[in-house]
Amino acid sequence: MEYKQMVSNSHSLILTIAVVMASSQTLASALTVPNTFVSGAATSASDMNANFAAVKAAVDDNNTRIASIDGTTSSFKGFSSGTTQGNGGLITMGNLCNTSFTGSHVCTTLEFASASYTGATGLSGNAWIQARGLSKGTSASVTDQVSLISGHTSTITCNGWTSNSSTNGGLAVSSVGGFTAPQCSNTLAVACCN
């Protein structure tokens, strides 16, 4: 294939990608291609690579936006700076997260397991975490489908986050990502996701 035809084909590819990206949806990020080429003129690999890098950056940004709309990505922010016993309730726990990391909420085990951990802070000890995907075993037993911890709801949710009894337990996650079910009388931080 001749050099001119390769350059022309490359220009067509870039133009096609730009048109598709610009028209695909209103939430798409803007694409600014740094180099414009003239038919018949020579171009450099660095100029072509710069254009491809611009297209890749826009595609990656759009992928991130779409994933956040789909709810498929979560970011683990860290453990709250404030603490509570197991009877704090989800509102108190959510407020502890939001105070520590604006816009965050109590993580579920599913969110935590699939989250990005980059930049997580306050990781020391254990933190309360909300069960997700409970499957019913016997009439008195449930299993969190992520941590695989089983028990009566009073033993993995501190009886709906209303108990600070040492006879009940709640799900918690450790600073290295292990799951446990400490007594509700423990005072712990809260695992926070965004």
Would you give an account of this structure?
The chain has 194 residues and is α+β, with helices and mostly antiparallel strands. It has two domains: 3-70; 76-193, Roll (Mannose-Binding Protein A, Chain A), CATH 3.10.100. Helices cover 38% and strands 14% of the residues. It is built from six helices and nine strands. Strands 1, 2, 3, 7, 8 and 9 form a six-stranded mixed sheet that branches. A hairpin with a 5-residue loop joins strand 4 (134-136) and strand 5 (142-144). Helix 1 packs parallel to helix 2 (45-70). The radius of gyration is 25 Å and the shape is elongated. 27% of the residues are buried. The model is unreliable at 3-11 and 13-26 (pLDDT under 50).
Characteristics of this structure?
38% helix, Mannose-Binding Protein A, Chain A, 2 domains, single chain, 6-stranded mixed sheet, 194 residues, 3-stranded antiparallel sheet, alpha+beta, 6 helices, elongated
Number of helices: 6
Largest sheet: 6 strands, mixed
Estimated share of beta-strand residues: 5-15%
CATH class of the largest domain: Alpha Beta
**Judging by the overall fold, what is the CATH architecture of the largest domain?**
Roll
Question: In which range does the helix fraction lie?
Answer: 25-40%
CATH topology of the largest domain: Mannose-Binding Protein A, Chain A
Q: What is the arithmetic mean of pLDDT?
A: 79
